[in-house]
Amino acid sequence: MPLRPVSLHATRGSVAAQEISQGIDALLEEYRDQVPLEFPAEVLAEAERVAGRAAPRTGSAASADDTARIDRIDRTDVPFVTLDPESSTDLDQAMHLERTDAGYRVLYAIADVPLFVDLDGAIDTEARRRGATVYLPDRRVPLHPEVLSEGVASLLPEQDTPAFVWIFDLDQAGAVQSIDLERATVRSVAKLDYDTVQEQLDAGQGHPMMQLLQEIGDLRQQQEAARGGASLNVPEQEVEGDGDHVLLTWRSPNPIEEANAQISLMTGMAAAQLMLEHGAGILRTMPPAEPQAIERFRRQSQVLGTPWPKDVAYGDFLRSLDWRDPGHLALLNQATSLFRGASYAAFTTAQEVPDDPAQAAIAAPYAHATAPLRRLVDRFVLLVCHAHAAGRTPEPALLQALEAIPEAMRTTAAKAGELERHAIELVETAALRAFVGEEFDASVIERREATPSKESGKGTSNGSPTRVEVQLTDPPVTAWVPMDASPGDVVRVRLDSVDPRHGTARFVPAGDLSASADGDR
């Protein structure tokens, strides 16, 4: 029997899970009027009723569909697998990959949420109030009732589940040669998780389909680079469970996650292509970076000692940066200025298509089409794309509904984003209590000049000192510190005090014992 390490004490910097839970409870009460928490009784009742649609059937009626009948193909003989974090139960996607004489075939199954959600029904109305699943450190606030999102509509293993199935044929270079979309019944044979799959691949083993996924993902990354696409190679801050405690950690995505994301990205691009060709749909757009933002970033790269060569595309340059290097980390944070202005654009005629339909970071038109259990807009994109793929005009009621979805996504995302930020602040400040009085090395990622005091008829407003934003590695937090330094510098700072009730932490330059400076996280 293998021996397991035993910890008799909580890991330093960890927080009692019960404390976090109580803090999140209080935070949710503050947001009760902004972010829906419980589902109304009529929504739960409708979810229980429509869950009966899960039984595989051909030609079943569903008023949420774009025709009176659904012709569903039986794909239960195809061994689909899912790939997600280990704890996930709301499984939106499953895949089957195979090698062909010409290259590759990808079958990508997406949960058929529209089968269970009638347009303008109780579930649809509530989903528009929520917009997306909200993920908090110790729980989530789901978009749909769990009987659907973690039950009959989820692509769980050994369960016959309705799905939209995208069919892609790729050439040897990973370029898409053909696209199709059908509604089918599928059966996942395995629920794979990122960490286990990556460990197996690193050991030269693993599921054959995961080996093929990494191969296709690498090719799709080359396709991304060729078209000028970009992504930010930064780690994720994660709240990790540790028995009765939680701990803040850094988490870098596994290579297999990047490969998996490329399949989703390919699907979103295919959905956008279908909708643009047929003149109806919802795109995820982002304008190109402003010339002044690009020039500013070039100057920053020069100052930070990693110049951006004129002949290198910015996507290639960003892919070359390693967040573990303080100068690179500062650059990656500054690069967010190039990724602004993302929004949704709905159109029901060719004349309404945006003048620039591309998502600039992806360097191609793109749509959200792979997470309908967790995001409102995907359900509508899938229905429209299925109609286009079948050569039909989407139903008038569906086209009319498209117009309201961008605003619903915008307003709900703003409220949920604020809640998520406050929840992370709660965990951060609680975890930081164990480090009060200690000093840390930190990388400077931004600098702001001092602002003078201003006098007006209403009195005098205080200015602010020169300050820098720094990134700590352990614990993994950022903070503003009243001091002067240049981006990319490594400085020494001290945690002066923490106020978990208000979600603030004060950092000061190391050696400053006045505690009067106001350096807040």
Strand content is: 25-35%
Poorly predicted tracts of residues: 1-9, 55-68
- State the end-to-end distance: 46 Å
Write down how many β-strands occur, each being a DSSP E stretch of 2 or more residues.
22
The helicity comes to 25-40%
Strand count, sense and barrel status of the largest sheet are: 6 strands, mixed
Structure, explained:
The chain has helices at residues 17-30, 41-50, 122-130, 146-152, 194-202, 208-227, 255-278, 291-303, 314-319, 326-334, 376-389, 396-402, 405-432, and strands at residues 15-16, 73-74, 80-84, 93-99, 103-111, 134-136, 139-141, 160-171, 176-193, 236-242, 245-251, 281-285, 343-347, 358-359, 364-365, 439-448, 454-456, 459-461, 467-472, 478-481, 490-499, 504-509. By secondary structure, it is an alpha+beta fold. The strands form seven sheets. Strands 2, 3, 4, 5, 8 and 9 form a six-stranded mixed β-sheet that branches. The protein has a five-stranded antiparallel β-sheet with strand order 20-19-16-21-22. Strands 1-11-10 form a three-stranded antiparallel β-sheet. α1 (17-30) runs antiparallel to α13 (405-432) and α7 crosses α11 (376-389). The longest helix has 28 residues, at 405-432. It is globular, with a radius of gyration of 25 Å. Residues 1-9 and 55-68 have low confidence and may be disordered.
